Amino acid sequence: xxxxxxxxxxxxxxxxxxxxxxxxxxxxxxxxxxxxxxxxxxxxxxxxxxxxxxxxxxxxxxxxxxxxxxxxxxxxxxxxxxxxxxxxxxxxxxxxxxxxxxxxxxxxxxxxxxxxxxxxxxxxxxxxxxxxxxxxxxxxxxxxxxxxxxxxxxxxxxxxxxxxxxxxxxxxxxxxxxxxxxxxxxxxxxxxxxxxxxxxxxxxxxxxxxxxxxxxxxxxxxxxxxxxxxxxxxxxxxxxxxxxxxxxxxxxxxxxxxxxxxxxxxxxxxxxxxxxxxxxxxxxxxxxxxxxxxx
Length: 295
Prior knowledge:
The chain is mainly α. It has ten helices and no strands. The chain has two domains: 1-263, no CATH class; 266-294.
């Protein structure tokens, strides 16, 4: 099951790179403008000593506060990109280029809840493993090593509420836990591997930007641009990797529900064909109405 989940996640991400940019181009421009403006205001006279304003050492308290606000703004835009991306993949939605509403707030709320659940599940595991380690060093140390992974598994089993909220599916945390029965460890391993993939891609992104110093003439403008596109690219990598993973999880549980109801692949194809015919008829009717209006 782990190989299946991982293969489907990677395949979904590979085939939807273009979808990420088609659905998120307006947010990407917003990310670029936001990071460029903040980076320009924080850039010292001697230029940045690191890749971006987000990686610079904090010299003043107000700089740290502005950087924290920038991180929150990047996360807000990142959630919006992820929602648009998941909606296009799962239901073919073509939303307005920039939207922010209850749907975004719902996804953010669930993300905060999942973070708290992960932390609260990790704390007792670490306490128990520390006690066991004091009595039986070997097993306790093993449990202490596995505690973060167990907490990750718990969070992943509940995380299907994120893509569900993106497509306005009223899936609850309890339903997510039940629907992912038997998928927990596969989901956790897949999340771990995809996290490593995201880290690798971010490293490559930073390496490519650092190599640009030897190819482009040094200037304050390029330093500001590089400072802006590094966090922008980092956010896009996170969205692309983890939104693809969550969309895969959601697809798996919906397939399970379909199998339990006795639905077959042919049933889905028939529904899709009927939906396409309805769209074509609606398009023709609209075109006919426009022609009558002109006449």
